[in-house]
Amino acid sequence: PIWVSYYFSRRLLMNLLLVTGLETIRPDQPTMSTNEKHSTTLSCTYDGSPFSLLWYRQKPGSRPEFLLRARSRSAYGSSPPARFQSTTSRTSTELSITNATLTDSALYYCALRVVVDKHKGHVDLLISSAVLSDSVLYYCARTTVL
Predict the structure, then answer these.
(1) What are phi and psi of 80, to 5 degrees?
(2) Which of 95, 111, 86 is nearest to 25 (CA)?
(3) Fold of 2-136
(4) Cα 33 from chain centroid?
(5) Cα-flanking dihedrals φ and ψ of residue 27, to 5°?
(6) Which residues does residue 43 pair with via DSSP β-bridges, in sequence order?
């Protein structure tokens, strides 16, 4: 994934992340903002057939926090904020935040989870539209399904 800078002001600014791999996902708008007590919707468009779609957020000085997994219906993390909901179609996923507060100011990530063919032996990561000032952190993890 490409990690972009965190922005903070009295208005809530939310950035989306582009994650690419076997499938692609991209934010519809790279930066979103709203005022306190208003609602906003972050959206990403994806190609392919991912196993699941994920939403994360990262507050300054903290590690990314898993928010929810979305597919045809939403499945949330361990303690979902009631104001956060997700809807997903065949080509896009949205994260809606109602009654926004300053504590919602963060960097928001939309990501794909894909199933890798174990016989292929590798995963290809394609990064597009990166600029020299982008901060980058890559994660590749193998999970065992019993």
Answers:
(1) -70, 135
(2) 111
(3) Immunoglobulin-like (2.60.40)
(4) 16
(5) -70, 145
(6) 94
Question: Position of tokens 């960097």?
Answer: 107
One-letter amino acid of 91 = T
Contact 14, 108 (CB under 8 A): yes
Count of helix runs (H) and strand runs (E) in the chain: 0, 13
pLDDT 10s per residue in the chain (146 long)? 323 323 333 334 444 444 444 467 777 887 788 888 888 898 888 887 766 788 888 888 888 888 888 753 445 555 657 888 888 888 888 999 998 888 888 888 888 776 666 666 666 666 667 777 666 666 666 655 44
**Amino acid letter for position 36:** E
Residue keyed to tokens 């994650």: 19
> Whole-structure pTM over 0.85, yes or no?
no
Q: Which among 105, 101, 113 is positioned nearest to 48, based on CA atoms?
A: 113
